[in-house]
């Protein structure tokens, strides 16, 4: 699995190698070769094309639990916890996590203090609470809510700490925070018009949680990302 940071690192490294025929280190992403069919080097400004066998059901990652487009989602959104090349959990946006009880009902998360969403908002524990509790309880149609069915509340004692409380043991919570249930969304989407204050707006069919500006080509809507919910850092 290749995440956004690894992809950009590999891409920049490959671009620095003259005469490279393709980006083989990128695995099964299907990145187009850096040379034309005739073998001549392509201009420096030539875009890189990546082909995936599946499309995303929505650009709102909470709408559907869909494993097929996970490579696309992970190139756009960050999960709370990361996964290394061996499939083990490792720190990501969340730098540390620990169970505060003995039966898997209280999970404490420590957050990085230097993460910004692409709209400039700083990530805080309020975004964690918004993503995994507030929004899922406000819109029961979001399938990720089925993953967090046992979550009964999230405390935010400091901007860099969140405490998840479960009504039933959920020892798989850290794994889901690194996988399909872990994509983080900024509270700032409420200010972008993508979701109404009561989260009654619909984000469906290629309409990312960003401001509704752009052109429509066929079934795909291209939008201007004034408030897209991705992270720098």
Automatic annotation (TrEMBL):
It holds the Pfam family SBP_bac_5. PROSITE patterns: TAT. Keywords: Signal. Residues 89-186 form the Solute-binding protein family domain. SUPFAM superfamilies: Periplasmic binding protein-like II. Belongs to the bacterial solute-binding protein 5 family. This is ABC transporter substrate-binding protein. It comes from Robbsia betulipollinis.
